[in-house]
Input
Amino acid sequence: MTRYLSIFVAVLLWTGSSVHAQMINPQNLAAELTVDGYVMLTWQAAPGQLPSHYEIWRGYISPDVVMAQIYSPTAVQFTDYKVKPGEEYIYMVVAVYPGPVYGRAFVNIRVLPEASGLNFTSDPLTTIRVGMDYFYSPSTDAEHPEDISYMLVGSIPEGMSLSNVAGGPSYIYWNPKAVGVYKVTILATNTKTNARAVQEFYIKVSDKTGTLRGFVKSITDRPLPGSIVRFFQVSAGTNMAYEVRTDDRGEFLLENVQVGRIYAYAEPPNDAHEPQWYINASRIENALERVLDTLNHNTLTYEFYLFASPGNPAPVSGRVVNESGEVISGAKVSFIRKQDFIHIGDTTSLKSFASEISTPWNKEIVDTVVYTDYRGVFNVNLPVGRDYYTVVEKEHYINSFVGQETNAMMARAIRIGNSNNLNYSLIGSGQTNNKIYGKVSSKATGVSKLATIVLIDTELKRGGAGGGNTYRKYRSVVTDSNGVFNFDNLPDSPPSALLAIPMENSLAPQYYHSNGGRSNFTESQELSPLGTIQNINFELQETKQLGIGSYYGQVILRKGAERIPVPGTIVFAEHEATGKIAGYAISDSTGWYSIVGLEPGNYLLYADNPSYSNPNIYTNARPTMTMPVTMTYVNSVDINRTVDINFHIDDLRTTVGVGDDVVPGTLALSQNYPNPFNPSTTIQFNVPQRQHVTLKVINALGEVVATLIDSPVEAGPHSVLFNADGMTSGVYFYQLQSNGQTLGKHMLLVK
Output
């Protein structure tokens, strides 16, 4: 009935005509296709007339569906992201004046047929010496190579040029003059079909060089082509991170590598095998360090034999219902590998941080997608032992993660076991005409990027309670492959902020502001959803992860004597000299974060959590070290390679200022001493009265590795000696529980 009413109204608007109507019609309405295949409408307001708002209608034979309501009398543009390739549409832009009085204009356009696709088939040379001529001839899988035009986009290294040769191979030429890491982005366009492809890579320029070669095979001696081998070079004055893929024989060759200490890491092409540090090590601290030099060891050979992954595919099933318990059929359930989701960092990344670094050849982040049947049930098989994030989506419902969490920063990964059952209860979003659309791209290159977008109630800044029953303080959506996101059915209030969290760690998160992104929630721009808000675009800054250093720690809320871990906090590491973001992490469900891949240098660390942003209730997150902090290390086992920095947020509504020392009359837990330690350390705590106490030690995977006390203790201070003989180096968490209170701290074992 609604559709027929819309058609009737559209026909009335379309057929009504008068001299007066012509005077108030939108002027010069035009439609054109964007480079991504969307339809962009542009127009001008009638002379001397400003409507109360605009309506955008679309249809095939007649414009019979309202696409958007734009409550901006000065609006002159609308982009339709929901078009189908090959279809022809007719659009009507309606200017609505008081009365009501309508002015209207029409335009039609055919969307280009879906391109057959375009992909790069060539791999660039990524290492070179200073003063050496660099040539690279890109190629694609186009049926007619002569139809392909190449272009360098973004920031182009000084002196680099690209030549499109008619009837011959196009090529890049460069003669670098200085040591460094230079990003190159190539855009290939089929001039006949408009199909496009982007290739991004880094060129490492060295002055004193050597060669790395070798192979990656299974333990049964079967070559593993397509494996990624990463090398981390450390020396005084330079840090370089290299990547190379194995060929069809499982072999690799990497020339012009900067001399220094070398750590190697092999990652298989799929989940069938386990990655490893060289040789057969699960952690960089246990990896074999080798020295590349220009004299006796100017060529190093690496032979990787990877073990098969444990476990076989296991069934994963679940059910999706609404808040009333009614089944939801056709809900989309996406499983995203943990390393491909936003970087909610726990301390496991201190063990194998190489797996956290974005791989440019991973084109898709979604591993598996299934839909619920008429019973609301879904079934899928996934490999045992792997960690996944899930996203459940359905129109007119708020996207949900594990545990009905709608905030992506609070999402938890699930580890696939032999039997898995996941159930979801989706919260209805209601039905309104309020929408927010936008796009995410790299600021350096303009290339579209995958990201998770979080919508946050800005009343958190002022301590407000938020909207009604159908609105939570957070909503989260994932962009499509072109970086486009949209929020539909938003309530009329409260005002909101948007946060873009990239799926690549080589980019930094950003809060939206029309004058440029912000890294602090309190500086974000408020958006009041009313009708359609478009062109909320993010241009994300790039980070550099070329080192092997890590900052890690815990974000803690101090509420009187209580110490409460704070998940969902973004912790940034910023270069002191340049002001650019070097890396970031999001604290996990126990408040832990770890920022990896850092070079030696001076950094400013700061933490941001929207839920604790009201200055009348909470203090800023304050680090436990004075800024800036210096990252220094010589090799992988250098204790200065990992720096422990906690953040404290004080609840101003309670008694604050309780230090880390034991306070009589309260349950308190002190920092262990010594810390770091090997192999033993002392843990002190205080209890106000005789009571039952549990003191446990937990590893980075959340597993209890030791129970030091589980019995009643007398009032007063206590000391416990913890011996870590037989345990591996790393970060551990010790937890004190008593009378419903839980206190926790972390410690570092270095062997």
Notes: Residues 2-15 form the longest helix (14 residues). The chain has six domains: 2-110, 127-205, 208-306, 313-426, 435-540, 661-751. The chain is about 5% helix and 45% strand. Residues 127-205 form a domain with the Immunoglobulin-like fold (CATH 2.60.40.10).
